[in-house]
Amino acid sequence: MADPRMTMSENDLDVLVHGSIEDCTTVLKNFIQHNEKNKNFPHLSLEMKMSFYKGIFDRISNPSTPPNVINLLLSSLRIIVRELPTLNLALTDEYVQIILKVAKLKTNNDYVNCGDSETVEALKVVFNMIFQSKLVRSKFISNGFLEGLVTTIQTYNKVDLSWEIKYFTMRSLFIMTALCRETVPIIRNKLNGLTYIMDYILVLAELSQPYDNETVDLICEMLKGIYNLIHDIIPSSNGVDGNITDEDMVHLTTATKLVKLFLFHDLESPEKQDELQSHSIDLLAIIPYECFNDLIPPIEETNFSYDGYDMTVIEEIVEFLYRRLDAKPSEKRGTVIEMLSPVLYVLVRMAEKIRPIRKYLKLRVLPPLRKSDVLERPEVGITLRNKLCALMTSPAGPVTGLVCNFLFILVKENVKRLVKYTGFGNAAGLLANRGLLGGASSAKTGAYSSESEDSDTSEYKEVSHLINGFGWIEPERPSPCEGMTEEQKVVEAMKLVNAIDKLNRNQLIQPVQIGPDGRPQPIEHICQLLDHSNLGADSLIQSNQRQSDSSDSE
Questions:
Q1: 521 membership: H or E segment, kind and range
Q2: Is 534 helix (H, G, I), strand (E, B) or coil?
C-alpha cells in the first residue's frame, strides 16, 4: 500500500485551492518532504494531478499569496513537472505566462511581485520543463521565452542581479539551445544574445582576483551557452569561408581570447580549475583553425617559446591532458571518453593544421628516444608517450582512434617512425584500418614538409640494434623448449596447433593474412599462410629493425 504521506487526498487538494494560508502551507510542505526524489506519481489520478496544477497556478497568480507560500508552490511544481505525460496535458499558454512572470523572463516588466528566492525557484521550474518536453519548449518559445531570456542577460552588467538568478538563467539558455537547435540563430543573430553574453563574460575574464566557486560555476554555464551558440557558425569545424559574417568572426576571435584568459586564471579550488579549463578547451573544438594562430603569437625567447612563437597556451593544454591521463580513480570526473576525447580532438586539429604547433607537440609528446625509454614496452611508464601508447589498444574506441590519429600526425604519418615510437603491436590497429600493414606510405605523407624534426640520441643509437619490432629491448629469457627432446617439442607444438584450431572452429579467433590493400583479410585454411610466409606485417617489423642510425632523417 502506498504511503499516504506521499499521495495527496481530495481534501488536500481542496485545502490547496480554498484553504487558509496556514493549512495550504502544511499541505505543500508535506508533499515536498515526501516526494522530493520522486519522478512519477502513480497513486494520484490524472484528474487529481490536473487539479493540482490548477491549484498551484491559481495560488501563484493570486496577489494575496505571500512570497514564502509562492516558494513552496514553485517547489511543488518543480517536483510534479517531472512526470512528462501529465506535464504535456496540464501546461497551458496561460500557465506558461504565469511561470515566466515569476521567473522575470518577460520583456515588458510584467512580473509577479516576489523576491529573488521565488525567482530562482521559478527558473528551476523553467529548466525542468524545458528539459522534459518538446511540446513545452515550443510553448515557451511562442510565449516570448527567448526574448525574456536575452533581456535578462542584457541586464547582467546594468542591474544588481543575484548570482543564482544569473546562473539559472544561463542554465535555461544552455538547455534550450542544446535541445532546440532552431533557437540558436534566433538568440545569436536576431536577439543579439551572444553579444550580451560575450560582453559580460569578458568582464569576468579580466578580473584580476581569484574566482570563488560561484563565479566559476557561472562562467562555466556561460561557456556552455557560448559553445551551443557558435557551434554551427563553422560547419563541421572547417576553416573560415566566404559565408561567415564579420560579426560572427568577432565572436569566434573573442571565444579564442576567452580560452587564453581562462586557462591561466587563478582559482581557489583545483577541482574548479579543472572544470573551467575543460569548458575553455571545449571551445577550441569548434573554433576555426585560423583562430589558432591567436594562441601562439610571435615572441622573443621564453620558457615555452618555439620557432619564434609563444607556446604557453599549448603547453597548458598538454599539461591539462597529462593531468587527465594521470588522474587517480577518485579524481576522475566521468568516463575515459568524456575526460579525454575533447582535449585529444583539439590537439589533433591543432597538430593537423598549424605546423609550429605540431612541431612543438612532437617535441613534447615524442621527444628523441634515449636508452632508458626502450628498456620497457612503449606503453609502460609515466611519460606522455607511455600513457598515450597505452591508450592505443584501449577498449574506449573514440579515445583510441583519437590517440592513434594524434601520434600518427606528430610523426608526419610516417609508418616506420610511428612503429619506432609506439611499437608494432600498439600501431597495428591504426595501420590495419588505413591499409598500411604491408608497409605502404600514408597518402598524406607528402603533405608535410621534408624538413627533419628529430634525431636519435647517441645512447639510443648504441642500443638500436637490440630493439625488437615492438619498440623495446626485451631481456633474454631461457628457451621454453630447453631440455626437451625433438619428440617432446613436436607434442607441445601439436597441442598449440589443436588449441588454435579449436579457437578458430569456435569462432573465437579469425586467422588472417595481409591483402594487397594492406588490410587484414580472413583466410579459409591455415595452409594459406604457408603460401604467404613473407607477410607484410613481418616485413614492416624487420624493416623497422633495419633502420639506420639516422632513422628519423627524411
A1: strand 520-522
A2: coil
Q: What's residue 27's pLDDT?
A: 94
Q: Do 380 and 335 contact (CB within 8 A), yes or no?
A: no
pTM: 0.86
Radius of gyration of the chain (CA): 31
Q: Identify the burial level of 24 via C-beta atoms within 10 angstroms of its C-beta, where 0-12 means exposed, 13-18 middle and 19 or more buried.
A: buried
441: number of Cβ within 10 Å: 12
Res 261: pLDDT:
93
Helix (H) or strand (E) holding 442: none
Please give the Cα distance from 81 to 276 (Å, whole number).
31
pLDDT of residue 513: 80
Query: For position 542, what pLDDT does the model report?
Result: 56
Of the candidates 284, 432, 311, the residue with the CA atom closest to the CA atom of residue 365 = 311
- Show the cell assigned to 35: 516526494
Q: What is the 3-state secondary structure of 48-117? A: HHHHHHHHHHHHHHCCCCCHHHHHHHHHHHHHHCCCHHHHHHHCCHHHHHHHHHHCCCCCCCCCCCCCHH
Residues of the chain with pLDDT under 50: 1-2, 4-5, 533-535, 547-554
Predicted pLDDT of residue 534: 47
Residue with cell 582535449: 343
Give me the pLDDT at residue 549, please. Answer: 42
Side-chain half-sphere exposure of 267, counting CA atoms within 13 A: 22
Residue type, 252: L
Residue 191 and residue 196: Cα distance in Å, rounded?
9
Burial 385-423 (b: 16+ CB within 10 A, else e): bbbbbbbbeeebeebbbbbbbbbbbbbbbbbbbbbbbbb
Cα gap 109→12, rounded to integer Å: 34
**What pLDDT shows up at residue 550?**
44
CA torsion 337-340-343-348 (nearest 10°) is -80
Instruction: Give the model's pLDDT for residue 527.
Output: 63
Per-residue pLDDT tens for 153-184? 999 988 889 999 999 999 999 999 999 999 99
For residue 233, the cross-strand partners are: none
**Which amino acid makes up residue 469?**
G
